[in-house]
Amino acid sequence: MNTTQQTNLARHILPAMGGLCATYLYNVVDGIFVGQGVGSAALGAVNLGVPFLTFVVALAAMFPMGGATVVAIRMGRGDDDGANRAFLAALLLTLAASTALMAAGMLFARPIVLASGGAALSPGMQRMAADYLFYYSAFSIPMLLSTCLSVFVRNDGSPGLSFAGMGIGAAANIFLDWLFIFPLDMGVVGAAVASGLGQVASVAVLLSHFVRKRGRLRLCPRPIPPALLGKVCKRGVPEAVSQLNTPVTALCYNLVLSHFLGDMGVSTFSVLSFLSSLAGAVLSGVAQGLQPLWGQSYGRGDAGALRRLLGRGLGINLGAAALMYALLLPFGRGAVALFSQDPVLIQAACQALPLFSLSFLPMALNLVCTAFLFSTKRTARADAVALCRGAVVKAACIFALPAWFGPGLVWAAPLASELLTLLPAVLLLHPARSMEA
Question: Are 147 and 162 in contact (CB under 8 A)?
């Protein structure tokens, strides 16, 4: 790989990785400030809202990623008008989904918390979880819009601005979390409002790309054929199904742990999930950063470039996963202590972390395989891989392992599900036949 290719690869991967890390930092930072400023019960309460929020976010992810896949292929062919129609279709679908999320989360906050495992937990944790979900849902439109815009800004030739938008929002969230939780003593409500205002800041930065007309995509009204709406959804289904891994994991763990270990078990998983989500952001960032390059190469019909980019993506992601796992072994206790000073919680999380985080290695490969398949229009195959790791196998492992081998093995479920997914994922990687957009 020559210097120009290395630069182009880094130019796409690093901002995508950074942008996704900034996105996940919203919940992670909420967890740190809530755990330190309110207590370990509040830490678990924040996690009770995660299954619903991430479920809707996962469904909404199909719109920007599906639209981006169509946009990249059409840009590779020089079809700017078609690319702009796909962009607008994805934007309208995202706005519709965010409005629905806002209504559902605000109207049904308490029932959602109870259905997410809260029914078996203390009334105090239930109340805090419902408050957090209500106020977080109030900012659904900027929350989903910032993710959507960051994908298209990156695809439209400004990956640096995409990262800057998400980074500025994350920085605002950190400051506001401190302000609302410590000086203003707003508890979990302050954490939710801080996250929402951070997303508003991200949207403002990302919109500047289109206001200044810095790329080929435009925020101009165009007729959108209904078939294009369906195509955007279809291309994005693998990404949505892949992201279902987060809510399925959170829901299943909440149900199992609330039964076996109570409040402390849910709080322990909350810490582990925050650390895992950051690792997932890094690994997903590599895959998403390669998506425009895969799409454009596919649009040009360049099979050699596709093979080279696939190999590099697998190598980069596996190396990143190994590095993160190696760093967690000596520094895991310090990372856990960021979220809570409760010695019981720290001990429980540190015991579970080495086994829980070993799943990073096969997950790194599965994410690249899934992204490559949907970027090159093998949607059905991508759906199969994403569904396998994101819902079916993961849920089965979380429920089956503690039932068969005892509660301690519940932390091996992510590793088992990723390994069971890896073989079919690799087998499904072979050349595509269709080259239509």
Answer: no
Angle between helices 245-260 and 226-243 (to 10 degrees): 40
- Dist. CA 352–CA 265, nearest whole Å: 11
286 in Cβ contact with 309 (< 8 Å): no
For residue 434, the model assigns a pLDDT of: 42
Q: Which of 168, 33, 63, 52 is nearest to 106 (CA)?
A: 52
Assess contact for 413 and 398: CB atoms under 8 A.
yes
What is the biggest distance separating any 2 CA atoms in the chain, rounded to whole angstroms?
Answer: 60
What pTM, to 2 d.p., does this model score? 0.68
Do the beta carbons of residue 390 and residue 414 sit within 8 Å?
Answer: no
For residues 83 and 71, the answer to whether their CB atoms sit within 8 Å is: yes
> What was the pLDDT predicted at 224?
85
Q: Residue 329 has what pLDDT?
A: 85
| pLDDT tens track for 213-255 | 888 888 888 888 888 888 888 887 777 776 776 777 777 777 7
The pLDDT tens digits for 261-311 are 676 777 787 788 878 877 887 888 787 777 777 777 777 777 777 788 888
Output the CA torsion sign for 275, 280, 286, 290.
Answer: negative
Tokens for 260, please give them. Answer: 């076996």
Please say whether the dihedral angle defined by the alpha carbons of residues 404, 408, 412 and 417, taken in this order, is positive or negative.
positive
Q: Kindly report the number of other CB atoms within 10 A of residue 343's CB atom.
A: 9
Whether the CB-CB separation of 216 and 156 falls below 8 Å is answered with: yes
Inter-CA distances, 179 with 190, 203, 287, 405, Å:
8, 21, 35, 45
Query: What secondary structure does DSSP assign to 230-262, as a single string?
Result: HHHHHHHHHHHHHHTHHHHHHHHHHHHHHHHTH
d(CA 265, CA 38): 18
- pLDDT, average across residues 30-35: 74
Three-state DSSP at 117 gives coil
How far apart are the C-alpha atoms of 384 and 388, rounded to whole Å?
Answer: 6
- Name the nearest CA neighbour of 298 among 132, 109, 436: 436
Residue 153 has a CB neighbour count (10 Å cut-off) of 29
Whether the Cβ atoms of residue 318 and residue 279 lie closer than 8 Å to each other:
no
pLDDT of residue 192: 87
